[in-house]
Specification:
The structure holds two protein chains of two kinds. Chain A is of the alpha/beta class. Chain A has one domain (19-144): Cobalamin-binding domain (Rossmann fold, 3-Layer(aba) Sandwich). Chain A contains five helices and five strands; from the N terminus they run E-H-E-H-E-H-E-H-E-H. In chain A, helix 3 (81-94) links the parallel strand 3 and strand 4. Chain A is globular and about 35 Å long. The model of chain A is unreliable at 1-9 (pLDDT under 50). Chain B has a domain at 48-250: P-loop containing nucleotide triphosphate hydrolases (Rossmann fold). Helices cover 49% and strands 13% of the residues of chain B. Chain B is globular. The chains are: A alpha/beta, B alpha/beta. At the A-B interface, helix 1, strand 2 and helix 2 of A face helix 1, helix 2, helix 3, strand 3 and strand 4 of B.
Chain lengths: 148, 319
């Protein structure tokens, strides 16, 4: 059998739609904002894999692997972001996924720096416009190495 | 770090590596240059898995049923391919099938969501390739779920060994079913949400219609389920297994798969020809056929004949 030729790596900056996994991590029942974000990203031409409520870091990592996702979007409204968001970033790193994590929801200003230092790619508050949401997601993917 | 070779990816996928399998599926989904190689490689090992199609109207409970089926199958590595429409305006999509599945499936179930990506013809070739990759990776059964609206979606779900059509009480009578084109493709009917009034009425409608005749010597059974509660799913799985054994001992499995591959090759030829045809049509120079159609010197039919002859020289235009 002849050797299989090397395959060209996939890059995130070509014409293919970005694939985004959206979820709420842990015990947090407010998914109205996440549904608005899902619609916003869809309207920006992205493919949104919507996991919804009560996900775990494991279930989100599994979904990312199976769906070959480019970015994770988490919605947080239960004041657990300082605990949960770094755990998500760590789980992504441990799985070797190289996928950025974007947080949206209620995060006090003084916590934003903490989350960014913990490896979160962007934090979007309640005032963020749809354009800002789309731009933040695109920027987070672009900042990640082009070869995933 | 260099990219893993195709063989490495397949090897990892076969041992259950979700990332490798996820990446291979992206390649065939994009239908780029890699896709042909991936398809070629997968085809060598494919043909082992049972392929089950699940289709029906939006909101009829397909995703819940599909998730439950994967769980009761008792299989080591079931896979689900859940197909949702892309927005024709933006190309984006919300793929929401997983929320109906995640609570019911085991972690060994591989779920992949796929958007139709606007080109209906593309779906007809991307899906068989995705199934082929899952098959070569050792997944079995492979359940393909599509919304049962539109010819292509129905056809995609029907390109399975066993096709399950899901309806709900109050969905309409047999005339509606005939219109939808779903009845011809059903090997098994499910009346889901059977806890609602008139589930038996829905069953009666289907029975009446089946009394009028069915293809071959298999009469599609009708299973009542309440998928959210898990009721009737065991019965449904038994009927799927009964159909699988019917396929084997009747020889129908070989015939079906043969037909499937034939139509896949035909679909690919059609897509390829269409691409090339569109390029010829877009040639607006000098005395091109399209220019003459615009001047009303040539009819669209005559122009098509002419251009077809350029595409396929051995097929001269009809007089």
């Amino acid at each position: 059998m002849s050797e299989t030729p090397g395959i060209s790596p996939l890059s995130a900056d070509d014409q293919e739609p970005l694939r985004v996994v959206l979820a709420k991590l842990g015990f947090d029942g407010h998914d109205r904002g996440l549904k608005v974000v899902a619609r916003t990203l869809r309207d920006a031409g992205m493919e949104v894999i919507y996991l919804g409520l009560r996900q775990t870091t494991d279930s989100i990592v599994a979904a990312c692997e199976q769906e070959d996702a480019d970015v994770i979007g988490l919605s947080m409204h239960n004041a657990g972001h300082l605990t949960l968001a770094p755990r998500m970033v760590q789980a992504v790193e441990e799985a070797g996924l190289g996928v950025p994590v974007v947080i949206g929801g209620i995060v006090p200003a003084e916590d934003v720096t903490v989350l960014i230092e913990a490896g979160v790619a962007a934090v979007l508050g309640p005032g963020a416009s749809t354009e800002e949401v789309v731009a933040a997601v695109r920027a987070a993917v672009a900042r990640q190495s082009p070869v995933r | 770090m260099s990219a893993p070779s195709l063989d490495e990816l397949f090897e990892s996928a076969r041992t259950g590596n979700r990332r490798a399998l996820g990446r291979l599926l992206t390649m065939v989904e994009r239908q780029d240059d890699n896709a042909v190689m991936v398809s070629e490689r997968a085809h060598r090992d494919a043909g082992q898995a049972r392929v089950i199609g699940v289709t029906g109207a939006p909101g009829s409970g397909k995703s819940t049923i599909t998730g439950r089926l994967a769980a009761v199958s008792g299989a080591a590595r079931p896979a689900i391919l859940a197909i949702d429409p892309s927005s024709p305006l933006t190309g984006g999509a919300i793929l929401g099938d997983r929320i109906r599945m995640d609570n019911n499936v085991s972690s060994s179930t591989f779920i992949r969501s796929m958007a139709t990506r606007g080109h209906a013809g593309g779906l007809a070739v991307a899906v068989p390739d995705a199934v082929r990759v899952l098959d070569a990776a050792g997944c079995d059964p492979i359940i393909v779920e599509t919304v049962g609206v539109g010819q292509v979606e129905v056809t995609v779900a029907a390109a399975a060994d066993t096709t399950v059509v899901v309806v709900t009480p109050g969905w309409g009578d047999a005339v509606q079913a005939n219109k939808a084109g779903l009845l011809e493709v059903a090997d098994i009917f499910v009346v889901n949400k059977a806890d609602r009034p008139d589930a038996r009425g829905a069953r009666r409608d289907l029975e009446l219609m089946l009394d009028l005749g069915h293809r071959g010597d298999w009469r599609a059974p009708i299973v009542l389920t309440t998928a959210t509660e898990g009721e009737g799913i065991d019965d449904l799985w038994s009927e799927i297994e009964r159909h699988t054994s019917y396929l084997h001992h009747s020889g129908e499995l070989i015939r079906r798969r043969c037909r499937r591959r034939r139509s896949e090759v035909a679909d690919r030829i059609e897509l390829g020809l269409r691409d090339r045809a569109l390029r010829i049509i877009d040639d607006q120079s000098g005395e091109s056929a399209m220019v003459r159609v615009e001047r009303h010197e040539l009819s669209p039919a005559a122009a098509a004949e002419q251009l077809l002859a350029t595409l396929i020289p051995d097929n001269p235009p009809k007089e």
